[in-house]
Amino acid sequence: MATKCGSSRDAISELPADVKERILERLPTRDAARTAILSTRWRDVWLGQGRIVIDLDLLQGVQRCEGDKSYAFVNIINDILLRHAGPVKKFALCIYLQGHKLQQSDLDRWLLFLSRNGIQELTISIPGSNLEYKYQLPYCIVSCPTIKQLILGYFSFDLSIKASCIFSNLTSLVFERVQFSDKINGIVYNIPNLEKLGFYYCLGISNFGIRVPKLESLSIIGRIQAAELRWVAFHLKAIKTLCLDHFSLHEDFVLAASVFPIAINLQVIKLYRLNFANGMEFTVALQLLKKSPNLCELEIQASCFTCSTEDTRLPADHGCIIDQDLKMLHTIKIELFTGSKVEMFFVKMLLSKSPALEKIVIQDFNDPNLSMPLKISRELLRFPRVSPKAQVVYMDDI
Question: Quick one: which of 130, 150, 132 has its CA closest to 140?
Answer without folding.
Answer: 150
